[in-house]
Amino acid sequence: MPKRALPLLLVGLVWLLPQVAQAESRDTGAPNPERLETLLYQDCGSCHGMTLRGGLGPALPRDRMQTLSPEALTHIIRHGIPGTAMPGWEALLSEEEARWIADHLQTDNRLKTLDD
After folding, report:
1. pLDDT tens per residue across all 116 residues of the chain
2. CA–CA distance, 59 with 113 (Å, rounded to integer)
3. DSSP track, 40-87
4. What distance in Å separates the CA atoms of residue 88 and residue 19, rounded to the nearest whole number?
5. For residues 50 and 37, is the Cβ–Cβ distance under 8 A?
6. CA dihedral sign, ordered 92, 95, 97, 100
7. How far is CA 70 from the centre of its chain?
8. Cα–Cα distance between 13 and 86 in angstroms, integer?
9. How far apart are the first and last CA of the chain?
């Protein structure tokens, strides 16, 4: 192996290992609640507001989330809403992870109503 190829190989492995670890965690079907809650309040919060009170996207209070079935909410999370700014997260979230987020929004959501 040429001397210049080794550093490139190492950089590639350093980049690849987290990707593999993340894929393996998705394959187990066991959602990581800490990771998903961070994703919800930071990544989703970039549009829906860090406290889910709305922003570019609508507010996501618990009472509003409970008007949807868990299956419908999971579908929206994974596939987005065509014609809106809501993207699908299917490439980053397994069905089980999207369902965990949906359940969290409906039961453990810090924002119960917009009046809170």
Report:
1. 455 544 544 444 445 445 544 554 455 558 999 999 999 999 999 999 999 999 999 999 999 999 999 999 999 999 999 999 999 999 999 999 999 999 999 999 999 999 87
2. 9
3. IIIIIHHHH-TTSS-SSSPP--HHHHTTS-HHHHHHHHHH--TTSS--
4. 19
5. no
6. positive
7. 15
8. 33
9. 62
Q: Please enumerate in sequence order all residues whose Cβ is within 8 A of that of 70, keeping only pairs 6 or more positions apart, or say none.
A: 99, 102, 103, 106
Joined together, the tokens standing for residue 97 give: 């992870």
C-alpha dist (Å) from residue 2 to 5, 6, 7, 16, 31? 5, 7, 10, 21, 42
Q: Whats the size of the chain, residue-wise? A: 116
DSSP 112: -
